[in-house]
Amino acid sequence: MNPAHLDYDTLAELAEGLLDHEHAASANEHLDDCAECRERSAELADVSRILAEAPAPDMPADLAARLDAAIMAEAMSSSTVTSLTHRRAGRRWQILSVAAASVVAIGGGVLIGGAVLKGADSPEGTAQATPPRVADPTDRGASEGALSSRSDRSGYPVLRSGTDYRSGTLAERLRAGLASPPPPGGGAAPAELAGCVSAVAGNRQPYLVEVARYEGAPATLVLLPAGEGRFDVVVAGPGCAAGRPDVVQRLQISR
Amino acid sequence: MAFVSDVVPDKELLARHTQGDPHAFGELVQRHRDRMWAVALRTLGDPEEASDALQDAFLSAFRAAARFRGDAAVTTWLHRIVVNACLDRLRRKAIRPFVPIGDDATFDSVAPKMADPTDAHGVSLDVIAALQMLSPEQRSALILVDMMGYAVDDAARVLEVPPGTIKSRCARGRARLVPLLGHLRNRRANGIVGDTEEGGGEST
């Protein structure tokens, strides 16, 4: 009846219900009779199907990271609270890099390494940013109530041995040293040393403080009773001072 | 971190963001970035441009969050910002000169020669290349409706045009794509001869 074939535009508009009533009726009539136009109509339907089935492109990993960083930066610059967090996180990085420059291959290195990873992977983790935990003041010290008398912190013995400890033999040599009784508890330690020990030990009462060397550098070794004949040993580096433990090594030994 | 199970609604996240929660917006982005990336790449056809547009879009959404009207879905609002960032970029830079339809030589230079109908990456690239032959308006409409599965009314809200305009753009766009996507159609048709199921793409 209608000899004119239907073009793609007309067919597509027909499918979307965009043709007026009269036009649509004649187009449908033509389609009933014309296989060629029905084929074209099927081609059109396939366009939508091909589009729907096209696989979604994967977002490149570097873009995902870039977006996270851009949004994090925006969040920091737009909020004083978060910029404080940012500064704190930055300071922590400094502390960590100092520690990393010292000898932290074993033992306590795990803790510090973990903090580094946390800072790198989840910037939001820095919201509750605290300085790296070092002295573990409460956990194990709780069982040492008799010794961790908080008012009597200066009563620990200080041994100035000058021994140059090595990481590989540190535990062994300390254990040997523990076989002999500690030197008599001295009076007040020099202020500098007391500040360092206090930063390292927190609320715990040291069993012994040894001024020595570790891997060739000046070091302060703080031995903290951990119950049942065990001791936490914290090796503090030359930067150790009040409020700044500068821990280079931690380990636990038993008598 | 045990918040995997409790899913905070998009609107709640956006509200927290406007109240100063520094992590809320990042979570919102992580939730929707894959879909937004698909929209941006398909709209712009160029990964570099799409990356920049997406970053622009997320940052402007970050800043404009306070102006979000609660009556729309957050995804609608985000899509709108992403699409607009892409269209702005197209207008400013004219990344790809417009190619008249029917210029087979030019199209062949853009479309990869595909050997394997099951090559998903190749299909994806072919489709993206073909989309670039449409006007940006037709392209955006088709991406939302045919590719992202939006209802016409929802696409109309994203693009802020009447539903009839979306239908018309889709119709025109599909008509133009028929010759550009025909090679995908034929390949597939050959692959499933005698079987209505998608039978592993074996072609004989």
From TrEMBL, chain A:
Residues 122-162 are annotated as: Disordered. Keywords: Membrane, Transcription, Transcription regulation, Transmembrane, Transmembrane helix. The keyword Transmembrane helix applies. The chain crosses the membrane at residues 95-117. The keyword Transmembrane helix applies. This is Zinc-finger domain-containing protein. It comes from Actinomadura craniellae.
TrEMBL record, chain B:
Residues 126-177 form the RNA polymerase sigma factor 70 region 4 type domain. Residues 28-94 form the RNA polymerase sigma-70 region domain. One of its GO terms (biological process) is DNA-templated transcription initiation. Pfam families: Sigma70_r2, Sigma70_r4_2. The keyword Transcription applies. GO terms for molecular function: DNA binding; sigma factor activity. InterPro entries: RNA_pol_sigma-70-like, RNA_pol_sigma-70_dom, RNA_pol_sigma70_r2, RNA_pol_sigma70_r4_t2, RNA_pol_sigma_r2, RNA_pol_sigma_r3/r4-like, WH-like_DNA-bd_sf. Keywords: DNA-binding, Sigma factor, Transcription, Transcription regulation. PANTHER family: ECF RNA POLYMERASE SIGMA FACTOR SIGM, RNA POLYMERASE ECF-TYPE SIGMA FACTO. Belongs to the sigma-70 factor family. ECF subfamily. This is RNA polymerase sigma factor SigM. The lineage of its organism: Bacteria, Bacillati, Actinomycetota, Actinomycetes, Streptosporangiales.
